[in-house]
């Protein structure tokens, strides 16, 4: 059996569209209100369940702290995936003394396109021991891909290390979002696939896709508008660096498939569907309103497309 396990927070988003961001202590009428299920991992699963068919030997799982199993909030979250959703919630951590999900309140300015987000989460976070107990439920002989948010790097890093210990053949991907957050570099070093945010690309002066020094070319990469290469160095300098790497780093880099992704609204993708490369060009991706979720799903199919084949 093949499994894809996504580990991260699940939110209920309340989105208010406003003509412009309000001044402090002012009243303003919103032009629209939207309440939806959010969170990077749930959003990615929403996309993936549209890509994986009943004939595919792949099970998808969400690992996330949720309110009480009987609470209305938890029921609404599960229902948001649809009646026939293949997503499994068995490994979620139900906090039975809580009835409210983690929440985000989002002010979306129609004037500038900015989004101002206020989060509230009263649910106890997943512990390393809770995660290890979940890992033990999976058979070491099964193929597994584990995807982690990087919100709590120290905890996630220890989870990844225990995962390496219990399931050494597991594929691991992580999201690396905020450059100032301690522990994210160490977390990225443990993964097979890393998704970097726009702010990381800007801080590191990474070249955009399409630039001469971007260096894309692997058939296992999904590239998209704004995606940056693993380094911004020229080809000759990069080759010299590779020669000077230690044996340990060479093995790590050979294992790793790293993308530095920037927040995206339109895509320029090399599509690899079930191992068959097709064309490269402009692609409309209708699966989700959240581009980051689309990128993870596309990268999953590219990096290990045989996982979805029976």
Automatic annotation (TrEMBL):
Keywords: Signal. It comes from the Eukaryota. Gene3D superfamilies: 3.40.1190.20. Residues 230-252 are annotated as: Disordered. Residues 1-17 form the signal peptide. The keyword Protein biosynthesis does not apply. This is Carbohydrate kinase PfkB domain-containing protein. It comes from Trichoderma harzianum CBS 226.95.
